[in-house]
Amino acid sequence: MDNGPEQGQSQVDAEVGVSGSPDPLISGMLEGKLLQLYNEMIAVARSNVYNKSDAQDAVQEAWVRMLANRGSLREADKLNAWAKVITANAARSINLRAKRIYPVDASEFADNAGTSRDEQAIMLEIRELLESVDPRTRALLLYKFYFGYKDQEIAEAWKLPVGTIKARIHRAKRRLQQWMSN
User: Other CB atoms closer than 10 Å to residue 47's CB: what's the count?
Assistant: First the structure.
């Protein structure tokens, strides 16, 4: 007998109470299971987001993804593990969205009243140097030196070996030093 998505889907629907209205006893048990799952998902989200206030957003996004893709769950007994993986992925997505770089207008540097002219000149020079490198190198340098990510964290996010990340950082630094000395 094939245990395809339709049969697995009906098991999940029956357990979650999507098709038909379960009796109060089943409903109470189901509510307890869902509450436990929610608490486990919150714990996973909190351990994966940088800003702890984003944990509930990650869980909400995970629930939406789970409901939209519930047909991909093949075995109902794997619901907790599936939910935790989706929550961790949602948390990582939130982290990436929070770290996006937005273009900065040069006039914003000039408007900073608390900075001296030397600091403004340095900031503009750094900006020009970063604009002169390719986007991948620019992102790598920003992740490393501006956001303070470790080489290992960058390697995991980019799905590259740590040695490759270290070599790219070293080459980029050497290239920037050469440009600055010219």
Answer: 12
pLDDT of residue 106: 47
Task: Tell me the pLDDT tens digit for each residue of 16-46.
Answer: 445 455 566 666 777 888 889 898 999 888 8
Distance CA 37, CA 57 (A): 16
151 with 166: CB under 8 angstroms? yes
Helix ranges (H only) for the chain are 5-16, 24-48, 55-68, 79-98, 106-110, 117-132, 135-141, 151-158, 162-181
Query: What whole-number distance in Å separates Cα of residue 5 and Cα of residue 125?
Result: 57
The overall average pLDDT reported for the chain is: 77
Taking the C-alpha atoms of residue 48 and residue 42, their distance in angstroms, rounded to an integer, is 10
Provide the pLDDT for residue 24.
66
pLDDT at 141 over 90: no
Contact 89, 58 (CB under 8 A): no
What is the separation, in whole angstroms, between the first and last Cα of the chain?
Answer: 72
| Model-wide pTM > 0.70 | no
Burial of 166 (0-12, 13-18, 19+ CB in 10 A): middle
Please state the φ and ψ torsions of residue 112, each to the nearest 5 degrees. Answer: -70, 105
